[in-house]
Design goal:
Blueprint (H helix, E strand, L loop, with lengths): L19 H11 L2 H10 L7 H5 L10 H26 L4 H10 L3 H8 L5 H19 L1
Helix pairs in contact: 2-4, 4-5, 4-7
Length: 140
């Protein structure tokens, strides 16, 4: 027996509508956030080898480990900042919940049970849609 995937469909009349496959692209982009954060925190410019940083980003070929580490940190922070900015622009009060929900794949019900999100389901998912709409504009 196969499982059918639920595809989130939003009316094209909705102000936050984006094409379904673009939504999935952005969603998978955001699901990498915990990995970016972990890599960012792990970078130690004094001990990183070029080969290690090459798995994070395409380094510029500089031999200075501090410079390579700074480049990697800048690359990762730009991605994380893009997600944070979209969340804050969606709703300043719900930004932290949006970031956790979107980057960890948590539903509203999980956010309500674990973090006591201070809004209703309709409000959360409206801001959730707005988040992806803003991120779509930011990423171009």
């Amino acid at each position: 027996m196969s499982k059918s995937l639920r595809h989130p469909e939003l009316s094209e009349k909705n102000p936050y509508w984006i094409e379904r496959h673009r939504y999935y692209e952005l969603k998978h982009f955001c699901l990498q956030y915990p990995l970016w954060k972990k890599m960012y925190e792990a970078i130690d410019g004094a001990s990183r080898r070029k080969e290690d940083l090459g798995t994070i980003i395409q380094v510029s070929g500089h031999s200075d480990p501090t410079e390579r580490a700074a480049e990697a940190m800048l690359y990762l922070s730009k991605k994380m900042d893009m997600v944070k900015k979209a969340a804050e622009d969606s709703d300043k009060l719900l930004a932290e919940y949006l970031i956790v929900g979107i980057t960890e794949g948590w539903s509203y019900d999980v956010l309500k049970a674990r973090l006591e999100i201070p809004c209703g389901k309709d409000t959360y998912y409206d801001r959730y849609r707005k988040f992806f709409w803003l991120l779509d504009k930011e990423r171009g």
